[in-house]
Amino acid sequence: MTDELLSSTEAARLLGVSPTSVKRWADEGLLPCVKTAGQHRRFRRSAVERFRATQMRTGDLVGAEVEAWLTLLLRDGAPQALDAKLLSMRAELGSWVAVADAMGPVLTELGERWARGEITVLDEHYASERLARALARIATWLPVDPRAPSVLLATAEGDDHTLGLSLAEIAFLEFGWRPLWGGRRLAATELAAIIARGVPGLRMVALSASLTSSNSAALAAEVDALAPPCRAANIDVVLGGHGAWPALPSHGQVVRTFAALRDAASPE
Questions:
Q1: Half-sphere exposure (CA, 13 Å, Cβ side) for 237?
Q2: In whole angstroms, what is the distance from residue 113 CA to residue 124 CA?
Q3: For residues 221 and 230, is the Cβ–Cβ distance under 8 A?
């Protein structure tokens, strides 16, 4: 049997995702493709099948798994089913960090379906809130040592997307840290003032910026505002998410995965 060439739509159907996801993976160099004379992407079936097998081995969710998650998040149902699926995933992958990174394709697909008009903004908010509440419920079960170092979690100024923070919260609990929820709508000047006044046990500030935070100058200014009080108090700054953070911030470091967040939170 010849190794047939598939279109983006055919490859997407084989993987169980949208053609947009397939094109993005091709552009990122994750899924090999060839270009026709008309510059259309074509994918060898063997390469698509290897990609699916590799993603499943590394714990990333693709295809039917993504669809199952979206169905669970978008439908009305008992919250216990969502909790159980998260706990089952934790047992399978071995850590909440792995769960958080594996959920990336689900959240990406959710956003892309909203962008394509396949779901409403209400659907997107509903699914995100269901997942955030499930993570919050699970977080309450995890032990917290009151003597543990504290991390202040907040979104970038003007960014209302807190789902990344919810994933970070449960990850930090697993790291042995005590999360302090700052959430959204906390101005950089207010956050800097809080740090300057002093927070007992605070050793890190973790800020999350979603793709909607595309103003790199504003994000750089926020980091610059936090740098003096954080340096004075010897507080680390971690900048996460897929926002337009400066590549070389004036203080702290940028992380793009929860595995990298674990490294940033680990003692030297």
A1: 32
A2: 9
A3: no
Helix or strand or coil: residue 44? strand
Q: 148: which 2 tokens?
A: 């543990």
Say if domain 64-140 classifies as CATH 1.10.3210.
no
The C-alpha angle 9, 13, 15, rounded to 5 degrees, equals 115
pLDDT tens figures, 173-194:
999 999 999 999 889 999 999 9
The domain spans of the chain are: 5-57, 64-140, 145-265
The residue type found at 56 is M
pTM: 0.75
Q: Is 268 exposed, middle or buried (CB count within 10 Å of its CB: 0-12, 13-18, 19+)?
A: exposed
Q: How, if at all, do strands 178-183 and 202-209 pair?
A: unpaired
* 149 Cβ neighbours under 8 A, 6+ residues apart: 177, 178, 201, 202, 203, 204
Answer CATH for 145-265 from 3.40.50.280, 3.40.50.1980, 3.40.50.620, 1.20.58.60: 3.40.50.280
Query: How far apart are alpha carbons 67 and 106 in whole angstroms?
Result: 8
